[in-house]
Amino acid sequence: MLLGRRRGMAFLRLIAKVLILWDERVVGGWRQDDPRLHSDFFDHFACDFPDEYRPLSRTDVDAAVECFLAGHKTLVDWYRTLIAPPGIVIEWRNRQPLISPACIVAWERLCTTFDPDSLLTLDLADRFSLGARHGQLDELNNWRTVVRVQDHELAALWRRGLSDLHIHVSGVRVPQLAWHELVQKAVPIDTFRVLAKIYEKDGRDIERDREEANRQWATLRSHAGLAAANPDLLRSTTDEWWRPLDALRRRERQLLLKAWSTVKNGAPRHAEIERSLDLYLSHKHRYFRLVRQGTFSSPPGLRQFDKRYFSALKRTSAKRPAVSYGTSPRQTLTPEGDGCRYLMESNDLRRIELRIAPAESRIEYLRSFKEREMLIERLKAALNAACAWGEGPPSLDIDRRFPDIRYAVHFKRTRGAPARGTGPVADAEMKMRELDRHTAALRAALSDPDETRRRWMRGLSRIDVAGQERDTPLALFAVYLRLLRGNPETLEFLEKMSPDDPIAPWFEYWRRLLWRGEHRPSLGESRIGLTVHAGEDFADLLDGLYQVGAAVHVVGLCAGDGIGHGLALTSEFEAFGMRAPDYVMMPLGTAHDSLCWLHRFVDEFGDVSPTARERDTLHTLIRETGEKAYAGLDAGFVNAKTADYVWLWENRVLPRWARSRVPAQRDHMLRKACSRPALLSRERMAPADPRRRDLDGLVSWARDKLMSQIKKERIVIEMNPGSNLRVSGAPRPQDSPTVRLFQAVGDGLLACINTDNPGVFTSCIENEYALLLAGAVESGVPEGRVRELLERVRQIGMELVYWPTSPNSPHEDFMKRNWR
Question: Domain limits of the chain?
Answer without folding.
Answer: 74-310, 329-407
